[in-house]
Amino acid sequence: MSDFAGMEDLLQDFLTESSELLSDVDNKLVELEKRPEDKHLLNDIFRGFHTIKGGAGFLNVDALINLCHRTENLFDKLRNGQLKLTPELMDVILAATGVVRDMFGAMGQARQPAAADPSLLAQLDAALEGKAVAAAAPTPAPSPAPSQPAPAVAGSEPDWQLLHQAVTGQAPKASTSKPTAPPVPVAPAVPTQPAHPPLPAAEPVARAAAPAAKAPAASQQLATQETTIRIDTNRLDQVLNLSGEIGLTKNRLTTLRTDILSGKTDGATLKALDEAIGQLDLLVGDLQNAVMKTRMQPIGRLFQKYPRLARDLARQLGKDVELVISGEETELDKTMLEDLNDPLVHLVRNAVDHGVETIEDRIAIGKPAKSIVQLSATQVGDHILLEIIDDGKGMRPDVLRRKAVEKGLIDLETANSMDDKQALQLVFLPGFSTKDQISSVSGRGVGMDVVKTNIQKLNGRIDIQSVVGEGTRFSISLPLTLAILPVLVVRVCDQPFAVPLAMVREIIPIRPEHIQEVSGRATIVVRDEILSVRSLARLIGWEETQTPQFGVLMQAAENSFILAIDSFIGRDDVVIKPLQNIRPRGIAGATLSGDGSVVLVLDMESMLDDTQNSDHSAIKTTQFLEMLTHKA
């Protein structure tokens, strides 16, 4: 039975509000270290902890009340001038807030948390008595585990017939005899219930797992936390108003349908029908936008975790680093916020660990002792731009090439053919690291690989700019939402395909006389830029049935190229249905066109990745396409 039986709603409200309060307290503590005399800041911190203690009192969580009471008294003495803030005292305070977060984790699993470590309580008591406290080892937030791609369907080849049915909802015209296999489920484009961002207590939860007997209750409780979202009531009012307008238009269409079925097909009736359909089209578009806005959340809720992380890691490494955050009010799709956490944690940690120099090194080369790491978010058109900038030593392309060769990630010939911009991309290779020795912070070469993988899963891209001696800039470009994707619909071999519009620069006609052979590859010169020509049909594995008439000038990662196609249909906004449990190379998902036919959305980054271009994966992708397009 739960330790909080009968108080589940109160517990959920407490965890949601107190976790946000604790994150705010952590950030203000980092600010307080820079401005120890700021009484207003101390008052805010005191009030935050007092509120957490009060909520714990309602739930009778004695261990949490005891720890909060000691820490609150410490804040009271600091704001009254009875104590002076030192780095060692701040370490103890942050250790206390970390244990509070651990306790939230236990409560999230519906059980009473264990009492705080007696040594921590003793340090708090010593500080309250005015005694010097020993330097505590900072405990930075743990680095998230590398995300793993979804496993492919185990066992035999997938049943393409059933796969076709799963995607289209109808049986294929051409049938082949295959052993029966479970259908591949297609995930809905928009979750029925949006996921809730993980509470700040989520990381310690892993260290304080619930006993096996209570696992089901914990899972149920945590699932509830992940499916809640805060929405401005004005946005819900807008959705309700539009729903009412659509209901009125539906009634109008029902009346017109009755009139038409009864034989009333005069010009006035048909004109009224046309106007009603046009009105419905506008209202549905407005409703779609309004619903999308309910999923939008300020990215500041994610950013608030990182000042504490940067401070603790810098102190552990003996560096002086200030994390400057801007653009917290920028809004992003709620589901994307969760998937952004791992990449941003890795990038912030890398900036502190790899990017900036030690205090001694900075002073020796004439830089300020304090390093500045900037984390910003801005909306640029229909995309969000995230930037992580440090003023450190920068990255040397020659060193990156040498390290990649030493680790066997690339051969010497490939390294010598790379320009500096391409060499910077080597940091994203699995297993790449510039560290010669593995530490608790870095050196295993898994972080940046995870960053790029997760960003690509969000239909985004990441770029690097670095100047030796001045610093490094990581720029992440993301769509505002994953629910609706702007695409360019093209046609190859009488089959439509969709490519993300964010990668499209322009469409140009292709003439045979424009194509030139360079190093055995077809190229076209566009405004003095030599671009390779890649046939979409050949990338898929089909034979070209006609000479491509058009080329889509595309930008993928650091490479520009021309995608040769037969024709194009136009721009569209589509709802993607990702394919679960199976991911043919080069296929991001599927959508339906206006006439009900399947349109496959291409993942160009995956399709162009030669490291994945094995015969096995190519055959599977071709089989998948042939089944869906009845070319088998």
Automatic annotation (TrEMBL):
GO molecular function: phosphorelay sensor kinase activity
Modified residues (Phosphohistidine): H50
SMART domains named among the record's database cross-references: CheW (SM00260), H-kinase_dim (SM01231), HATPase_c (SM00387), HPT (SM00073)
The HPt domain, residue ranges: 3-107
Biased composition (Low complexity): 202-218
Residues covered by the CheW-like domain: 484-613
Known catalytic reactions: ATP + protein L-histidine = ADP + protein N-phospho-L-histidine
GO biological processes: chemotaxis
GO cellular component term, pick one: cytoplasm
One Pfam family matching this protein: CheW
This protein's UniProt keywords: Kinase, Phosphoprotein, Transferase, Two-component regulatory system
UniProt xrefs under InterPro entries: Bact_Chemotaxis_CheA, CheA-like_dim, CheA-like_homodim_sf, CheW-like_dom_sf, CheW-lke_dom, HATPase_C_sf, HATPase_dom, His_kinase_dom
Histidine kinase domain span: 241-482
Region (Disordered) residue spans: 133-156, 168-221
Compositionally skewed regions (Pro residues) per UniProt: 139-149
Domain of life: Bacteria
Enzyme superclass (EC): transferase
E.C. code: 2.7.13.3
PANTHER family to which the protein is assigned, alphabetical: CHEMOTAXIS PROTEIN CHEA (PTHR43395:SF1), SENSOR HISTIDINE KINASE CHEA (PTHR43395)
Function summary: Involved in the transmission of sensory signals from the chemoreceptors to the flagellar motors. CheA is autophosphorylated; it can transfer its phosphate group to either CheB or CheY.
Protein's name in the database: Chemotaxis protein CheA
Organism of provenance: Chitinimonas taiwanensis DSM 18899
